[in-house]
Design a protein that fits this description.
Blueprint lengths: L4 E5 L5 H16 L3 E3 L1 H4 L6 H10 L5 E6 L1 H9 L2 H16 L6 E5 L20 E2 L6 H12 L15 H4 L9 H12 L5 H15 L1
Parallel strand pairs: 1-2, 1-3, 3-4, 4-5
Helix pairs in contact: 3-5, 4-5, 8-9
Length: 208
C-alpha cells in the first residue's frame, strides 16, 4: 500500500490552534500519510498563493483535509486572507463534483448550540468531528480510513440470482394425452387398454 499524499488547509486562528494542527499532521505522518503542511513545506521566498493553489489542484495530492474552526468558517465565507483564496478553489472543486472524495472537513470547534463551525459551501456534507477528546481516537481512525480509502463498512458484492428463480418452470413429461387414453380405455374396458398402457410407460420412461 502506497503512502497517500495529503494537504491540510487551516486558519492561523491562534498559537494553540496552530499547534493542534501541527500535532494532527504529525499523527497522520506517523500513520503512513505523506502530509504537506505550510509550516513544513512553505519556505521563505515561496509564492504562498501559488503554493495553496497547487496543493488543491495538484493530482498528486490525493486528499485535502479542511481543518475548520470559527475563524476558518468566517474567513471562508468572507473570502478573507489565505483561507479565502483556498476557499475559492476548494468550493469550486466540491460544487463541480457532488460525490467528490478528495476533500473532507475536520471540525475542531462548535458553537454554543453544539453545531460545528463549517464554511457555507460545506454545510450539507459529511464531516469528521475531532472537537471532542473522548471521541478523538475513534474519529481519528475514521479520518485514516477515509485517507486510505478503507471504509469500516464495505458493501458486499452482488451474488448470483437463486437458481430456483431462474429455473422456475413447470415440469412436463409429455404424458398427459397418453394418460387420458389409458384411463379412458381401462374405464371403458377397451381391447386396446394394454397397448395404451404400454404407450404411456414408454413415453414416461423416455421423457423422464
Amino acid at each position: 500500500m502506497e503512502h497517500p499524499k495529503l494537504f491540510i488547509s487551516y486558519s492561523w486562528s491562534d498559537s494553540t490552534h496552530a499547534q493542534w494542527v501541527l500535532e494532527l499532521a504529525s499523527e497522520l505522518s506517523e500513520s503512513g500519510v505523506e502530509v504537506v503542511l505550510d509550516k513544513w513545506d512553505l519556505k521563505e521566498g515561496h509564492d504562498s498563493l501559488a503554493f495553496m493553489e497547487k496543493m488543491v489542484t495538484d493530482r498528486e495530492i490525493k486528499k485535502v483535509v479542511i481543518v475548520t474552526d470559527k475563524t476558518y468558517a468566517e474567513k471562508a465565507d468572507g473570502r478573507a486572507g489565505g483561507v479565502g483564496t483556498e476557499t475559492q478553489i476548494i468550493s469550486k472543486e466540491i460544487y463541480d463534483n457532488q460525490e467528490q472524495e478528495k476533500f473532507v472537513a475536520v471540525v475542531t470547534e462548535k458553537d454554543d448550540e453544539g453545531e460545528p463551525y463549517l464554511p457555507t459551501y460545506y454545510k450539507s456534507r459529511i464531516y469528521i468531528d475531532l472537537s471532542e477528546s473522548e471521541k478523538y481516537t475513534e474519529n481519528f481512525e475514521t479520518l485514516l480510513r477515509w485517507i486510505f480509502d478503507k471504509p469500516l463498512y464495505v458493501k458486499p458484492e452482488i451474488g448470483k440470482i437463486p437458481a430456483f428463480l431462474v429455473e422456475e418452470k413447470s415440469i412436463s413429461l409429455g404424458t398427459t394425452a397418453a394418460q387420458k387414453r389409458v384411463i379412458s380405455a381401462i374405464r371403458g374396458n377397451k381391447p386396446y387398454s394394454a397397448g395404451a398402457l404400454d404407450e404411456y410407460f414408454q413415453i414416461f420412461s423416455e421423457n423422464i
